[in-house]
Amino acid sequence: MNTVKLKAWINLSRPPFHTVGIFPFILGAVLAWHLAGRLDWAVLGWGTLAAVFIMLAAYYSGEYFDYETDTLSAQLERNRFSGGAQVLQTGIIRRGQAFIAALVCLLLAGAVGLLLQFYYKTGPYTIPLGALGMFAGFFYTTKPIQWAYRGVGEIWIGFCYGWLPVAASCYIQTGQIPPLVHWLALPIALTIFNVILINEFPDYLADKEVGKRNLVVRFGREKMSKLYALANFGTWLLYLFSLRAGVPLKAFLFFCPFFLLSLLTTLQVLRGDYKERRKLEGICARTLIFNLGTTLNLILAFIL
Questions:
Q1: Is the dihedral of CA 215, 196, 241, 236 positive or negative?
Q2: For residue range 49-71, what is the model confidence (pLDDT) as tens digits?
Q3: CATH code, domain with 36
């Protein structure tokens, strides 16, 4: 494989966007260590690898099935957070190769799940939890289900990048899903929900043209800007409740800078700054930072 094609595969894999799944998975393991006083590094390593394979399957299949809308989006209102990776459009990697890679990654994720459950004895729910992530992630844009085209993709994203990685990671370490998992996962789920929601704003015209019926297409950007604000408000509220549920109080100190960032971004969205392309790109970036920061400050709070 030559350097140009290797670089194209790396870009198609979208490494920066793996953090939104890996960080919650690490958080689940850190919570297990906090509660049980031990951490199986091999299980964490294999579990993280399985999560990466599932994300790759979702990203590759997404590039394949969103080819038309991504091409159109790049022509209408392209920014760094919309229109996919734009690698298949160059022809360096053929569309069919991306879909085959998605299937291979799905099989590899399944193989790691079998290894975890039957070799490392991580518990009977290991495979069901992994299968749930595989099903939801792979069919996010894959026919015939295509969650992202039916107005429920954003909810699945909140679940698969919020509750599921935290719960699954904690489970394969301890064999149980303690109630604290839910309090950690809910704020993260709302932040990643907003990442997907705001990233649909620049894709609005292209998605509408190809019949992609996500929330922004169904209800319009103005109404969804209010949902964005409501989701952020829910994140702040749930984070405060999590401090009473068992999250170390020091987490609040780590959270404060990200809260201020989120507050300012929310005010931007409510006053309609998303209508300007450059400002919208900044809003997308800060929404992603808020998601990553929310997860990272919880990890730090439990470690420190």
A1: negative
A2: 999 999 999 999 999 998 888 88
A3: 1.10.600
Q: What is the rounded CA–CA span in Å between residue 197 and residue 210?
A: 18
Domain span holding position 87: 3-303
- Total number of domains in the chain: 1
Could you tell me which of 236, 177, 150, 233 has the C-alpha nearest to residue 35? 177
Torsion angle (degrees, nearest 10) of CA 113, 119, 121, 122: -30
> What type of residue sits at position 152?
V
pTM of the model: 0.94
pLDDT in tens, 201-260: 998 888 888 888 899 999 999 999 999 999 999 999 999 999 989 999 889 899 999 999
Mean pLDDT of 1-19: 90
Which ranges of the chain does DSSP label H, i.e. alpha helix? 3-13, 19-36, 41-65, 67-77, 95-118, 126-138, 153-158, 164-174, 180-199, 204-210, 215-219, 221-245, 250-270, 277-303
Q: How many CA atoms are closer than 13 Å to the CA of 281, on its beta-carbon side?
A: 8
